[in-house]
Amino acid sequence: MLFLLSLSAFLISIGFAVFYVGKALYKYPYGYMPKTQDIENYYDDITANHVGQAEEVNDKFNTFLIKKYCEAIDRNIDNNDAKLERLRLAKKAVMISFFCVTLCTAFNVWSLFDALS
Questions:
Q1: Which pTM value belongs to this model?
Q2: Mind giving me the DSSP string for 6-17?
Q3: Hey, which of 20, 64, 72, 113 has its CA 20 to 30 A from 44?
Q4: What is the span of the domain harbouring residue 97?
């Protein structure tokens, strides 16, 4: 009876581990910097609209790049935090499963010795 209980706990904890590893690896919307062509088009647009205002063009362009960089980094940091938490949960489930499989083995060996005596 104890063997079946610990075996059930082992299988459940392995199931949780697989679930959390799967959740940690898939379906994250990553943030990216714009493509180089998009950056170049933006730069061309602001230089065409601000002829003779090189300092203002540089300020707008730098603000654009910093804004896009911050948006991408913020999204990726949030994704990585969520991944890390799910991997921690998977690690806990694996540790529980190792404990349960050790109990299964101990109960199985104990019943084997009990049957021999």
A1: 0.70
A2: HHHHHHHHHHHH
A3: 72
A4: 2-116
